[in-house]
Amino acid sequence: MKKAFILAGMALSSIAFSAHADTVRFGIDGNYPPFAKQGADGKLQGFDVDIAYALCSAMKASCEIVPQDWDGLIPALNANKFDAILSSMSITDERKKAVDFTNKYYNTPSRMIAKTGTTVSQASFKGKKVGVLRASTQEKFAKDFWGKNGATVVSYGKAPEGFLDLKSGRIDGMFVDSVVGETDFLKSAQGKGFAFVGADYSDSKYFGYGAGIAVKKGNKALQDRLNQAIAQIRKDGSYKKVQDKYFNFNVYGN
């Protein structure tokens, strides 16, 4: 019992420290431009990275960016590799079982990218392949919406890998966050002949309530601190300054 008490005390101390430490460590997947990508200097850059630094400035804390592949983000958070996940992670009821979330810091719909003129319905990809990012909200939706209607859902560890297969014809569509699809594929040379097809998808059952910052379960002190910082950068113009660097629309959403 004494040992369990000591360990519990250490865990609580760790939570308190991460919430009030001079440095806040953010885990970010660097394979998701324009939200995050590796720069020429080897460091991560993008909307999520700049938001992290804006939040740290608001909290008067130093900021540390920890690169982490997408499907390992939650396990790494729970292993104390970093204090919070700031990596375009949608707030969903399923993820809330594993982590706690701040309020949203942006919200964009998901879309299908395929050859221009492709018709999209639940049955339109029967016998075909749809690419998604592994462990994403898009993956879960695609398996229910197209996978149960005869499509093969192909999951990738990194979105650019899916775009390469789409261009080469190894898959027939890539279902992604609309901003990522436009920036990382459609606006590039390899996107010629492809387009967003079908409707926007934003069903909260799958896609949640916008992208939030994840913290360990029970770390309310850091959760509250980040929520206050989100509200502050929205109010003082810091958020808009970052937004306008990457987008020509309101990425925060309604």
Short description:
The protein has 254 residues and is of the alpha/beta class. The chain is built from 9 helices and 13 strands. A hairpin with a 5-residue loop joins strand 3 and strand 4.
Word description of this protein:
The protein is 38% helix and 27% strand. The chain has 254 residues and is an alpha/beta fold. Strand 2 and strand 3 (36-38) form a beta hairpin. The chain is globular, with a radius of gyration of 19 Å. Mean pLDDT is 92; it is low at 1-19.
List keywords for this structure.
alpha/beta; five-stranded mixed sheet; 9 helices; 13 strands; disordered N terminus; hydrolase; Solute-binding_3/MltF_N; ArgE/DapE_CS; signal; ABC transporter substrate-binding protein
Helix content: 25-40%
**What structural class is derived from the secondary structure elements?**
alpha/beta
How many strands, what sense, and barrel or not for the largest sheet?
A: 5 strands, mixed
Please give the alpha-carbon distance between the first and last residues: 50 Å
Topology:
Layout: H1 2-20, E1 23-28, E2 31-32, E3 36-38, E4 44-45, H2 47-59, E5 62-67, H3 73-78, E6 84-90, E7 99-106, E8 110-115, E9 129-133, H4 137-145, E10 152-156, H5 159-168, E11 173-177, H6 178-186, E12 194-201, H7 204-207, E13 211-216, H8 220-236, H9 238-246
Parallel strand pairs: 1-5, 1-6, 9-10, 9-11
Antiparallel strand pairs: 2-3, 3-4, 6-13, 7-13, 8-11, 8-12
Protein name: ABC transporter substrate-binding protein
Organism: Vogesella facilis
Signal peptide: 1-21
